[in-house]
Each structure stands twice: as C-alpha cells, then as structure tokens.
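chain below, 184 aa
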Amino acid sequence: MSATVNILCWAQPLLPGDGADMAALAAALAGEGARVHLAWGGFRPPVLPGVAVAALPPAGLADPAGRLVAGADGRPVDNAWKKRRAAATLKLLADTGPALVVLDCYPFARRAFRFELRPLLGICAARRPAVPVACRRPPGPEEPDAPERLAGLAAEALPLLAAHSGETDRAAAARALLRLAGAA
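prediction:
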C-alpha cells in the first residue's frame, strides 16, 4: 500500500457472535496497513490490535422476536436516543475523514438503524470526491427483496455498494476493500 488510508467500519451486534466478522475484517484491514476506525454499537467493544474502536451508544434487542431495539437500560430506544446515536456516528465520520466506509450487514439487515445510516450515506455521496461505501453481507441465503433494497439505496445516491460475504481469506477481502478506497 503506497499511503495510509483511513477506513471507517460500522458494526451493530445485536446477538452473541454478531459483529465478529466485521471485527475480523477491521483487523485484517489494519494488518494490511490501513488506519481503521470501528464504530461499535454493541455492549462490549472488542479490543483489536491496530484498530481504533469507538463505542457508540450501545443497543441490543428489547424483545425476543427482535423487532425492537433497546438501549443500555434495556428499554426500547426513543427519538432522543436515536438523535444521540446518529450524532455520535456522524461525528466519527467527520473526525476520521475516511476514504472508505464499510457497513456490517446494512441494508441486508440492521434496517432499524436507518436513522443513523441514511444520513451517513448522504454525506458520503455528497463529498467530492464521493466516499465509497461497501457492505459486508450477512451469511445465509439472499433475501427475496434484496435487489429492491439495493435499488432503493442507489436512488439515495449511494456512490458504491460492494457486497462482501463469507470470505474465508480476510486478507484478500481487505486488499479488495483497499483497492476500493484507492489505496492499492
């Protein structure tokens, strides 16, 4: 890699084990020489060598069906919490000035966090040059409405959405993302 590049990764683990793939990808990016910032929305931020982990206001599930998002107090989040959370995410974007943003599972999952991710995507698209955005797809079969969801994101002026799913070679995935960031 010719120059150090800033990359912002975003993960929102809701269940045990969630976020592990994004943490491994963030570590692989750091291992390839990138300056990686991981926005972590879960309750226990990981400690990753070479990765600056920023704890967002934490969230989990408020109900067993997984329909409601809860804050640290275990109660469903309200609009004030959403504003604080979105502000923290957007501040991290502004402070890090990434050449690439990598989202964990969104828009395939984590749609309850649109309130913070849509503004982030809008800012990435409005920058000149636009900041590319990649998505790590969750494992499993593609949902039937995935093409419509992707088309909806394109309508939101998302500059680029590259789905990375289930790579066993994290270093290869990291190198592909670095090329996307223009640092190959």
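The beta strands are 6-11, 35-40, 51-55, 60-61, 69-70, 100-104, 133-136, 161-164. The chain has a mean pLDDT of 80.
thats it, cya
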